[in-house]
Each structure stands twice: as structure tokens, then as C-alpha cells.
Amino acid sequence: VTEIIKIEQGCGRMQNRLVTFSDGVKACVRYRQNTDQIQGELFSFFLGRLLNITNLVPSTASVIDWDSRLWQQVKQHITESQWKTSRPVVFTKWLPDLEPSGIPEQFRPLERHMNKNDIWNITMDDGTVATKPSQVLIDRLKAKFNSDEGSGKRRKKKMWQKKKISLNDGMLAKFIELAQWSDLIIFDYLIANLDRVVNNLYNFQWNAEIMAAPAHNLARQPNSQLLVFLDNESGLLHGYRLLKKYEPYHSILLDDLCVFRKPTIDALRTLRDNNVAGELLNALFEQTTTNKVRDVLPPLPDKSIKILSDRIDRVLQQVQKCQDMYSNDR
């Protein structure tokens, strides 16, 4: 219901623009020649909502219409941008003051993994300022070493007895980051995103230092430490067409991930058990778009829905594998 009062260059690619609405809100407008990239951005956001993943920038679709109230004040700038009328675009909320986000050290070497033992190692790091105890976490971690036999494991048991462990600020920050990375790995696997960590993994064969560089299309809010999953336009359509080439890179992190956020896994189980992923995604599309948008932008195709369902199954198989692997530790 607001109007765009300013449009300027920005937001990545040459034909993207940064717009300002009359209420002061800013957004990135993503213009693409192919509608599947518009769909990818939009439906990836919808999937994030279904999974309760809050790291995705709010997104909505619109149609370029010079005569509509939304675009009327910036008609001249639209012409200069070489945008064609009646084309769909995606608005994504503009977030200021984002900074690059590096890849956690657990995922940098060739033997990448994140599991219970990695969490144990973080808790064994000496912290400087103890703040919040996490006895439930500590009890679950130490159960493995209390129940095992052998002199080496008994020494670890004694370490727990000697060392009182509580979450210090550094540990807490690492756990929050790794929990978000768990969601990122699952989310990017589900949508087959080519333009984030897969980009780093693919280029690793030519540049061994690239895993130490910031992840592509990933940012962090400095104050909240929230990771922001940017630019998901390859998701669910374009990425699915290139699975034959990129599937090994999609799987490499998921195969060794054994730390999950329970709400994310619960949501995936609900989608799988009721077979409603495609239905709910297209329902969100119907509820949040206008007739003009739906005239030029189709719903998520059946082929993509089938691939998504298969990939949900694959993630839940990984969860079961981890449960079986660590079942004796409880």
C-alpha cells in the first residue's frame, strides 16, 4: 500500500536496485530474465517459514507496472534500469550494517564434520568469563565417557570430575553460530543452493585457501550475531536442474552433520509425514501474491515438489543415522 519514492543502484547485480518506500523502509529489488530465479528466491523464503528458520530476509513478489501507485513516482528510473514492464520482481528487505561471515573451523578441513565430539571439544576450551551453566548439555555429553571402559576413557571421566564446566561468552557464541550453521546446511541441501558454501567447496579444487574465506551470500548482523542467508534464487528450480553436477558438493556437509536444531527436524518430520510440503508452499504463494503476480509467475512445479520431498527424506535419514551412531552414548 506504500509507494516507492526513490530508486538507486545497489544490491548486487547490475539490474538490481535499492528502493525506498514512502514509510522509509528500504528493499532490494531483484530483476531477472528468467522467472525461475524469481520463483527460487520467493519459494526458498516460503520454505524457510515452514521450517521456522528465521535467517532468511523477508521477501515478496510484485510486477513492474508503470501505471500502478507503487511504481508511479519512479517511472523514469525504471526506464533507465532497462526493466521491462509486466515483468515479475522480488522485493527483499534491505538490512543495514551486515558484515561477512566466515566458515566455522569444523567445516574447513577435508575431514569436515560437526557432531557430539565437536561440541565436547568446545566445552573443554578454557573460557575467561563464566556466565550461564548448561548442565543438561554437559550431562548429555559426559554420559559417553562415564559409561565406556578403558584407561583412556576413564581419564576423560576424571577430567569431568575435576573440571566444573559452564557456558562462557565464547562458548555460547560458538554454539549459537553452529546451531545456525546446522540450519544453513540443511536448508541449502533442501533447496540445492549453488551460491553459498557449495560455491566455496566447488572452487576448493583450485584454491585450497577458499574455505578460510567468507562464505558466499552469507552475512552476519554484528549486534545480534544472526546469520543472514542471502540470495537464494538458485533454490528449488535452477539448482535442481544441476543436481547431476553438484550433488556431491551438496552432500559433503550433510553426510557428516550430526548436530541439529529440534524445531527444524520436527518441522521436516511434519512435512514428510503429512506429505504437504508442496501444498503448503503453493498455499503461501496464493496467499501472499496478487492476481497480477500469479498471471506471470507460476506456482512451484510438481517436479520440484517431488525432488524437495526426496531431499527431506534424505535429511531425515541423516538424522536417523546420527541417532543410531550415538544411541549408546545416552
Brief overview, please?
The protein has 13 helices and ten strands. The protein is an alpha+beta fold.
Report on the architecture of this protein.
With 330 residues, this protein is of the alpha+beta class. It is built from 13 helices and 10 strands. The longest helix is centred in the C-terminal third of the chain and has 24 residues, at 302-325. The radius of gyration is 23 Å and the shape is globular.
What's the SSE blueprint?
Layout lengths: L3 E6 L7 E5 L4 E6 L3 H16 L8 E5 L11 H6 L7 E6 L5 E4 L13 H8 L6 E3 L2 H13 L3 H12 L4 E2 H23 L5 H7 L10 E7 L6 E3 L8 H4 L1 H12 L7 H13 L2 H12 L2 H6 L5 H24 L5
Antiparallel strand pairs: 1-2, 2-3, 3-5, 4-5, 6-9, 7-8, 9-10
Mean pLDDT: 84
User: Strands of the biggest beta sheet: in what spatial order?
Assistant: 1-2-3-5-4
Helix/strand class = alpha+beta
Coarse shape: globular
Residue runs with pLDDT of under 50 for 5 or more positions? 126-151, 156-163
Largest sheet geometry: 5 strands, antiparallel
Count of alpha/pi helices: 13
Q: How much helix, percentage-wise, in residues?
A: 40-55%
Order of helices and strands: EEEHEHEEHEHHEHHEEHHHHHH
- State which percent range the strand residues make up: 5-15%
Distance between the termini: 54 Å
Radius of gyration: 23 Å
Please provide the count of β strands: 10
Key structural traits:
47% helix, 330 residues, alpha+beta, 14% strand
